């Protein structure tokens, strides 16, 4: 009954805006109603009366059905409402899911984990670094950090944690508490290093390119954030270790790795082919930006590379088409992400963001203290995540507003964009509900809320300082 009431309220919002509330000065009627539909969709993502895919499918259907007169006719309105599903940004994410599925189906993700454990994991702290490095290695190919942390990394780490303390369960297993919390903190850092490491990164890219026309792409993103991001990642296991002391310090990593690798057997041709495809995709995503910066003109679209990787994965037998088609997460992402792209594109076309920027610029000011604006807005962008259980919802609601605020203060464009891009990810570390992977890992029962929140807050704040200062120096060097 509660979900039905929420659904009815959300459906009424566009009608209230359209027929009761006055249109603000300087804004068109079409933009006002589109904004209402956008607000209703975002609230739908927050309260979840129905699955996310249906929330956005309903929103774009409303645009197509009721805004024909304002958008140039019924046919044009339908085309505009569905335009996000043809967006290259949407398809790079959907295509990258194929690689994510392949890492799980072939066992390559688990094999990499056990090889890292064998080489590095002879103590609990070092095993924390193994977790971080594993997440980093597979992050460019897994746009769902839920699938990465919750589906690939944590099941392995959870099994190890249980074996380390077979007579202790729940919060009494402090080695498990350390490893579990570190798994989540690591994925909240790796998720901003590569654009394809988190689906919401492409919403961030879209917002940045909309407001600043930077031409930000996969390669430029990686070039900007890989150095400060890896430095942030190096701090995560030790920060977690300080706040959550494991009760087991030494680990028989050779035995753990030997048992895990024996279960996997010899490396298969499918795994070898996946390695080749994965490396080729990374080169295809990164080299154009790097070579263009060096004066060598090369034009390869990142979405085309992702589609090629997906097709190659199926054509070479690494995975089957049925593996992709049966992925509920991939299909759901296609529906909700394409819908978000449609709505945000329409708002841009009808000058909503221009109007909002002018409104903010006229009412808020940092009196030309540009760096202070970045610091304050960056901190707000972290702690406001207490209100958000999803980086996606944050990216489509608050992130564009913060961009406009800092822009109005005259902040350096590159610093502003990359700082806020990073906080979009590690801001979710501060709570045990800051991303969909959190309930999976926290739900294992090793951690209490106090230690999780304290550790996450320190990870977020130290990462913020690194991004501000190390990132600031790095960006001056490379751009």
Automatic annotation (TrEMBL):
Main location per the UniProt record: membrane
Membrane topology: Multi-pass membrane protein
The keyword S-adenosyl-L-methionine appears for this protein: no
Protein name as catalogued: DASS family sodium-coupled anion symporter
Pfam families xref list: Na_sulph_symp
Subcellular location: Membrane
NCBIfam families: dass
Annotated keywords: Membrane, Transmembrane, Transmembrane helix
Family affiliation: Belongs to the SLC13A/DASS transporter (TC 2.A.47) family. DIT1 subfamily.
TM spans (from-to): 5-23, 29-47, 54-71, 91-117, 192-212, 218-244, 272-292, 298-318, 330-347, 369-388, 395-421, 452-475
Domain of life: Bacteria
């Amino acid at each position: 009954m509660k979900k039905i009431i929420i659904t009815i309220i959300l459906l009424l919002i566009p009608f209230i805006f359209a027929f009761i509330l006055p249109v603000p000065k300087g804004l068109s009627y079409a933009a006002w109603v589109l904004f209402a539909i956008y607000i209703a969709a975002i609230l739908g993502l927050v309260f979840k009366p129905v699955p996310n895919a249906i929330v956005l499918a309903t929103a774009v259907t409303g645009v197509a059905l009721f805004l024909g007169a304002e958008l140039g006719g019924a046919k044009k309105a339908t085309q505009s409402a569905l335009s996000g599903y043809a967006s290259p940004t949407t398809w790079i994410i959907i295509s990258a899911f194929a690689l994510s599925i392949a890492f799980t189906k072939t066992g390559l993700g688990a094999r990499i984990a056990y090889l890292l454990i064998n080489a590095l994991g002879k103590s609990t702290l070092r095993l924390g670094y193994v977790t971080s490095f594993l997440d980093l290695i597979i992050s460019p190919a897994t746009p769902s950090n839920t699938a990465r942390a919750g589906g690939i990394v944590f099941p392995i780490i959870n099994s190890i944690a249980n074996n380390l303390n077979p007579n202790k369960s729940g919060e009494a297993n402090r080695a498990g508490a350390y490893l579990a919390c570190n798994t989540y903190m690591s994925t909240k850092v790796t998720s901003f290093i590569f654009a394809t490491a988190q689906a919401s990164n492409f919403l961030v890219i879209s917002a940045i390119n909309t407001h600043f026309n930077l031409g930000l792409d996969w390669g430029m993103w990686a070039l900007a954030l890989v150095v400060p991001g890896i430095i942030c990642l190096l701090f995560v296991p030790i920060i977690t270790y300080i706040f959550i002391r494991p009760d087991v310090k030494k680990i028989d990593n050779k035995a753990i790795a030997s048992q895990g690798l024996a279960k996997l057997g010899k490396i298969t041709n499918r795994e070898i082919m996946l390695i080749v495809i994965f490396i080729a995709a990374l080169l295809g995503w990164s080299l154009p930006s790097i070579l263009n910066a060096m004066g060598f003109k090369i034009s390869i679209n990142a979405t085309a590379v992702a589609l090629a990787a997906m097709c190659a994965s199926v054509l070479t037998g690494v995975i089957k088409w049925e593996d992709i088609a049966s992925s509920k997460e991939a299909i759901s992402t296609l529906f909700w992400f394409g819908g978000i792209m449609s709505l945000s594109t329409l708002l841009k076309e009808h000058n909503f963001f221009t109007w909002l920027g002018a409104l903010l610029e006229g009412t808020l000011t940092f009196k030309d203290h540009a760096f202070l604006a970045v610091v304050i807005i960056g901190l707000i962008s972290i702690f406001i995540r207490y209100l958000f259980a999803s980086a996606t919802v944050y990216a489509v609601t608050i992130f564009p507003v913060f961009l406009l605020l800092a822009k109005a203060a005259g902040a350096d464009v590159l610093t502003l964009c990359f700082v806020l891009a990073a906080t979009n990810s590690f801001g979710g570390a501060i709570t045990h509900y800051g991303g969909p992977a959190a309930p999976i890992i926290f739900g294992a029962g090793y951690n209490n809320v106090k230690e999780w929140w304290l550790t996450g807050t320190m990870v977020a704040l130290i990462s913020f300082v690194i991004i501000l200062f190390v990132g600031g120096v790095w960006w001056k060097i490379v751009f």
